[in-house]
Structure to design on (398 residues):
């Protein structure tokens, strides 16, 4: 599939037509509906009578956690992610040879009208970095992750603000969101997808789910990166030999990336500046200084998550622990598998090493900012302080 990468980089999104080949659309709908029925039955057992299906504004299936439900009748729900129109197009958009699928989900219409959501970027500063940390990295090196909405039925729910993936919001946009974060923005664009179409977009673009109504919605949702993690690959036996080979290749590369991430963390732990610089370069070959700085910020978040997981009795909230266990390719978070590579004592020293980075990213008081997830926080929303550089971080070790 031909894609316009330059438009994608400039606007932060691109709409692609007939990503799902027309002759596969009906059979793919059928396979996904089997998965919906199975998940609804599970939710009803967990919380009668309807569970999540009856309550949620957007019931969502996560195929990575439903691996045991993949069989011959539903294997195409996985295979569509390996199609040239999805995986191939994602590789082109990211500018890499072999992008790996990360999450594989399905967003569904609710059983009653819930109306609009709020405009947001898909991250909270406490768990990631200020938006300009992402923006400058994207402008310097290209995006690390591409997210998809792929419609099984006509879908015009998603709106985006073109170009917002590489900038702060304007004063006018902030004022509009402060008045009503659930209304159209004057700078927003509604995406109109016909059945089989897809929209690929760069986080942290500002976007909006404009209406969670009962209108039939089955929209495949997920993304691609160079790093991923699969908690359960039992469904591979249901896939083609080529698909199994592809997943095997992605798993090996992701294991290698996790090892390189550990090497970077241990270099910081041992106060070896040259080894740390080399580890950053190994993580992002041929990338510029903005990638090095952004990775350092994200590694500071990894250090905090490792500390939280190794010392859960230190007053860490249940919400923080839940986040710490997750795998987040866009933010380089490796969850429990990375925490398992460090002892309790190492985790404490590692966090102390990266605390300098964390302190640079925080102000004296909690604040809020339109368009971000999470509640009030002392972490900066928009700009990375000029003093936060890799060289200054390393200089603290002497």
């Amino acid at each position: 599939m031909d894609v316009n990468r330059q438009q994608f980089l400039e606007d932060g999104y691109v709409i692609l037509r007939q990503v799902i080949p027309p002759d596969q659309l009906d059979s793919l709908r059928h396979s996904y509906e089997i998965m919906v029925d199975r998940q609804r039955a599970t939710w009803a057992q967990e919380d009668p009578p309807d569970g999540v299906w009856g309550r949620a504004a957007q019931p969502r299936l996560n195929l990575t956690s439903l691996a045991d439900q993949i069989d011959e009748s539903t294997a195409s729900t996985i295979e569509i992610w390996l199609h040239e129109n999805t995986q191939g197009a994602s590789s082109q958009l990211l500018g890499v040879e072999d992008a790996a699928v990360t999450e594989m989900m399905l967003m569904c219409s609710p059983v009653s009208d819930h109306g609009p959501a709020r405009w947001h970027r898909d991250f909270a500063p406490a768990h990631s970095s200020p938006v300009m940390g992402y923006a400058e990295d994207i402008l310097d090196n290209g995006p690390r992750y591409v997210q998809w909405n792929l419609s099984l039925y006509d879908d015009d729910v998603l709106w985006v603000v073109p170009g917002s993936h590489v900038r702060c919001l304007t004063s006018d946009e902030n004022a509009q969101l402060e008045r009503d974060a659930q209304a159209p923005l004057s700078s927003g664009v509604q995406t109109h997808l016909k059945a089989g179409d897809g929209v690929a977009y760069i986080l942290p673009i500002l976007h909006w789910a404009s209406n969670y109504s009962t209108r039939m919605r089955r929209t495949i949702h997920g993304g691609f990166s160079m790093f991923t993690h699969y908690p359960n690959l039992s469904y591979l036996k249901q896939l083609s030999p080529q698909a199994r080979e592809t997943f095997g290749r992605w798993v090996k590369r992701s294991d290698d990336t996790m090892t390189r991430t550990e090497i970077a963390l241990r270099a910081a732990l041992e106060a070896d500046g040259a080894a740390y610089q080399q580890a950053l370069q190994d993580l992002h070959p041929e990338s510029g200084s903005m990638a090095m700085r952004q990775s350092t910020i994200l590694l500071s978040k990894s250090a905090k998550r490792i500390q939280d997981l190794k010392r859960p009795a230190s007053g860490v909230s249940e919400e923080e622990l839940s986040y710490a266990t997750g795998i987040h390719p866009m933010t380089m978070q490796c969850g429990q598998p990375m925490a398992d590579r460090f002892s309790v004592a190492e985790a404490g020293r590692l966090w102390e090493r990266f605390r300098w980075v964390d302190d640079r990213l925080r102000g004296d008081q909690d604040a809020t900012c339109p368009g971000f997830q999470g509640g009030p926080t002392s972490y900066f929303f928009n700009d990375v302080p000029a003093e936060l550089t890799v060289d200054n971080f390393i200089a603290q070790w002497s």
Observations:
- The mean pLDDT is 95.
- The first strand starts at residue 13 and ends at 16.
- The chain is about 40% helix and 15% strand.
